[in-house]
Design goal:
Blueprint: H1 3-36, H2 40-44, H3 58-65, H4 67-98, H5 108-120, H6 125-134, H7 142-145, H8 152-163, H9 167-175, H10 180-191, H11 193-209, H12 212-216, H13 226-235, H14 242-250, H15 253-285
Amino acid sequence: MSRKGKSYLFRTVNVIFLAFLAALCLLPLIHIAAVSFSDQAMVSANRVGLFPKGFTLASYKMVAKRAAFWTAFGVSVKRVILGVAINTVITVLMAYPLSKSEREFPFRRVYVWLLIFVMIFDGGLVPNYLLVHNLNLFDTIWALVLPTAVPIYNIILTMNFMKQLPGTIEEAAMVDGAGYFQRFVYLVIPLSKPVIATVTLFSFIGHWNSWFDGKIYNNQTTNYPLQTYLQNLISSSDMTNAAEAIENALSNVKTLQAAQLVLTLLPILVIYPFLQKYFVKGITVGAVKG
């Protein structure tokens, strides 16, 4: 077989393999969406595949009336707004000085190795739990935000991206009298939009999908973020009150769970397309060894 034929065969096999992986990811999501729009009798009979059977919005109407879901949704929104803002600001502010040479920042290597060390050797669950408890952060939004305030991987990614920016641009601005802060705000940040968008997306997904910290740092279920609420809902088979028992008697539990899962996925599906154009450049350029 010629080199051209081998290349064509490789691309064909590669496309088929990637399409298969994409289908493995998409088909369960499509099935969940189909269940959420299906009649409870069809779901109970396991007749729902990739398309709704007996199309109905009954489950979504039930979710709209479920106060606990929207309370948890509000906690997650608050967590994402605070968490992403704190993560992004700290990431950018730490990455910029660490991207400088040792001539400009003599202790750069020390701080970089310190970040790598704490990224590899975590304090562990028990020390983190005791720290949050001793700081009286239980049942507050800060217990979900502050322990992950310094995303080390994002800092290293952003630092490597900033290191590859042309140094002549900053040198020209320095000749014109611009200080570090001015160069940082007016030159580095605009040029670093791809990596900032990438780490923002990472922070958003991390905060939105996290459920374990909401479980261990909250004593009151009303303070649960959305993912913790859903995990608790799916894993628990008993009814918490009479109203929920009546509600589940009127509507199939599976359709309610599916409807809530679909609503949980919507924010990510809405936000991701706006950041996708920056994602590839940010993750590839920022991943270069610094």
